[in-house]
Amino acid sequence: MVAGCASAQPATMTPPAVSAAPVIAAERAFAARAGVIGWIPAFREFTAPDGVMLQPGPVNAPEALARAEDNGDRSLQWWPGWAGVSRGGDFGFTTGPFVFGESDQVRGHYFTVWRRQPDGAWKWIFDAGVGVADADPIARDADVPTLPIATGGAASAAEAVAEVRELERRIALSRPPPDGTFARYLADDARVNRRGRPSGAGAGARALAAATPLNQAETLTAEAASAGDLVFTLGRARWHDGAAEREGHYARIWQWRSEGWRIVFDELVPTPPAQAN
Question: Could you tell me the pTM of the whole model?
Fold first, then answer.
């Protein structure tokens, strides 16, 4: 049950040892491996058995990557520019620039959601990117800024998923269209990615969300951290970008805050135009 959009569980202190460092390290290892064996084998190596990617709709990543032709391409490079982790230290995400070849021109920002596996290894459960504009990207070896770790959460991962799904249902059913309701749940420090525009943070995230209002939204899947404080959601969406209506998918991270669940990351991934035969 969502009461005031906040779980009833009281806030507790987060152990100081918990940080996003393992998630950042996993992303850097993933990117480095792509430079050695090629990006397709690296994606195969680092995806979880239930990993999801968009082609253009959600597909099982291991199955899709098994069918992908490996030509040894090592031109795709990326590095983390922002990261977050759950208070349980087993679920997190990173996002940051990607480029091709030796060019320094950023082609967009990737978004990867990570889950620690039973054997302790980190594997991604979702990976997608958006062609955002970034003329001044974070340095490849820079310290990566991180999302503050939550101080509480839902009573369980299942309860966290149920609460967030209910909030997304409210967003989808809101009238007029759900853009206003969506913006109400954006955290003050949220980050938002939209194709062709610079990544927005804080007030910039709200402005970017307002410039690309949602018309429709439908949750397809949701995954939560064991501590019940971070939830990843993926869904179908339609939105306006200027005068044009777009369709594709949204990918979000929700975080438990003392004031309730808040969106801390949101990206819209447009469906590519159909190719002529």
Answer: 0.92
